Amino acid sequence: MTSIKHFAVLSLAAVASVASAAIQPLNTITDSYVTLNTSVLSANSFTASALGGSTYNSSTGKLTDAVTSASTTTSPGALTVAYNSTSGVALSGSLSGLGVTVNMTGFSYDAASNTLFGNLVVNTLLGNATYANQAILVAGNEVGTLGSNSLDSVTSSATARDLNYTLSNFTMASDLNTKLGTLASRFAWLPSAVTNVVVYTKPTAAIPEPSTYALMALGLVGIAAISRRRQAANS
């Protein structure tokens, strides 16, 4: 019986130690995209195409990818932003004459480490490799807010807020470099192929109160009256 109680206490302690993610309500996001440097892709004999619900413009390098949620595990705490789990980008090209396709989907951004994560599937004629929730790129520059909070220190709230950020100046995540091994040098161009990651929420236009409309109407009436008086005086 004592051992059962001890196990129960340990189980409760383990559950309590796991921080639950607090979802932060968001106002409607106007734009969410990744800008790819098409010149870098072309120079390395790779092309990009959209996966899932994403869209891609090969002329501008703009890849759209919808944000699905934003959350924190502490308050205040760093924000984690999740994108559509099935959307993303496919990079197709060749390495030493061998055809290769790298599919990246289910992106997320961790503001605590400035790291962009995703699910990677590498396909070649010699075999396939899958890396789930893999750290891919680290942003050297992060400029962003959720409401009035910086992404690194978000206070939890039940009120929807504007999410805005721009990430740029990327480097390869060290963990991905390690997993790529001897192939790491072949993908050294990847960080420079991503110009920026942008999420933008257009501020909602304020709706005038009824009293404001009344004042506007009175103002128009007053202007009309003054105009009539001037016309009468000049006639």
Task: Give your account of this protein's structure.
The protein is an alpha+beta fold and 235 residues long. It has one domain. It contains four helices and 14 strands. The protein has helices spanning 2-17, 38-43, 174-180, 210-234; strands at residues 22-23, 31-36, 47-51, 55-57, 62-64, 67-72, 80-83, 88-95, 98-110, 115-124, 127-146, 149-150, 163-172, 194-200. Strands 1, 2, 3, 4, 5, 6, 7, 8, 9, 10, 11, 12, 13 and 14 form a 14-stranded antiparallel beta sheet that branches. The longest helix is centred in the C-terminal third of the chain and has 25 residues, at 210-234. The protein is globular and about 90 Å long. The N and C termini lie far apart (107 Å).
Précis, in short:
It is built from 4 helices and 14 strands.
| Count of domain modules | 1
Distance N terminus to C terminus?
Answer: 107 Å
Quickly give the structural class: alpha+beta
- Residue runs with pLDDT of under 50 for 5 or more positions: 1-18
Mean pLDDT: 86
Percent of residues in beta strands: 35-45%
The helix/strand order is HEEHEEEEEEEEEEEHEH
Biggest beta-sheet profile:
14 strands, antiparallel
**Broad shape:** globular
Q: If helices are DSSP runs of H or I spanning 4 or more residues, what is the number of helices?
A: 4
- Number-wise, the strands total 14
What Rg, in angstroms, do the CA atoms define? 26 Å
Helix content: 10-25%
